[in-house]
Every structure is written in C-alpha cells, then in structure tokens.
Amino acid sequence: SHRINIAIDGPAGAGKSTVARLVANALQYIYVDTGAMYRAVTAIALERGLSSEQEAEIGLLARELAIELLPGDDGQRVLAGGSDITAKLRTHEVNRNVSAVSAIEAVRRRMADLQRRMADSKGVVMDGRDIGTHVLPDAELKVFLTASPRERALRRFKELGDNPGITLDQLEIDIAERDRKDQEREFAPLLQAPDARYLDSTGLSVQEVADRISEWGRAAT
Length: 221
Ligand code: C5P
Description:
The chain is an alpha/beta fold. The chain is 50% helix and 17% strand.
C-alpha cells in the first residue's frame, strides 16, 4: 500500500495534536505539529523583545530562523536556531500572541514552505489550521476536528495541571478569542476544506477519534 498525507485541521483544544500523534503511530507515519512552529516563531520574537505589531521584523525573523521538529518521548521537541525551546512554547504569553504572529503573511509563507518540504515524500500526519485548505490541498485524507468550546477549554485546563495560572472561564475566553483571530485573518484562515471530513469529538475519547481517523487513513491508501 502506498503512503498518503493526512491533514488534520480545527480550532484550539480540539485534541488535534494528541490524535494526530496516535494516528501517526498507528500508521507508522511522521507527525508534524505545525502549531508548534508558529509558537516557536512567537516565543523567539517575544524573547527578542519584539511585539506582534512589528510585522516586518517578525517576518524577517521567521525567514532566517531554522526550525526543526524532532520526535521525543513525551511528544515532539522543537529546535529553533539549534536550541531546544519546547518548554517555552505553551506559556500564556505565547498563547496570547501566537494568533497575531501567525496572521503575518511572511510568517505563513515561510512556515507553509517548510511544511510542504516535510510532506514531500508522503507519510505525514500534519495538524494545524490551514493544512487541508492551503499547505497540502492535495492531501489524500483531510479531517476537520472540533469539539464544543467548553469541552475544548476543559481539555486545555486539565493539561495545565495543579497550577493552571488561569481560570477555566478565562481560558475559554482566550480560546474563543484565538479562534476568532484564526478564522478572521486575511491569509490562509482557519476554515474547513470542502473535501474534509467533519468530526466532532465532543464526548469521544482521543483513542476513539484516533481509531476512526486511522481507519479512514487505511481506507485511503
Ligand atoms: O495548534 P496550536 O493551538 O498549538 O496552534 C497555535 C496557534 O498557531 C493557533 O492558534 C494559530 O494562531 C496558529 N496556527 C496557524 N496555522 C497552523 C497552525 C497553528 O495559524 N497551521
């Protein structure tokens, strides 16, 4: 059977990354977390004292920054300019700025370029916002994965552990705000591709969702 590419898009907290990793394991494919790439650009920009309005500077930064994704025991590691910045990608600061940084066209062009190269030889499960619509429009399987806003906030809240540093209500507001910005941006917004399968994971376990997508993947090879 030949290898295909699988695109999983959807809003924040829909469980895309966990599901995509499970699907990649089941099919022995490579998992690519594109959100981590946008987070990497955002984290480095903040570290250099740039604000998200400094679009030209951040565009340049994205173009010169070497971003590498490596498989790790507890998920994917991200190297930026050679150093491991995985631990810096999921802070509230990055959460609050990543949609603005991701709306910069030069940033998106550069990330899409890198992502297409990663998918060149097929056998990739890529999760993000614009994979089925923009990055890999020819992906053999496209899934639009979502869940109710409350459930998505709750999942993220649980990931934050004993010291969440934020209330569930505030998290739900932050997520809704990020979704709105991702949907309303000009260039490659969050959107369901017409040929994507819609999957609402509310009330389903990650394993159930992953099994369903893996089945679709096997059927498409
Ligand atoms: O998937 P994750 O929540 O880590 O993505 C973080 C942010 O990165 C999203 O809210 C979105 O602004 C941006 N993103 C994007 N396009 C992608 C993946 C992520 O704009 N393909």
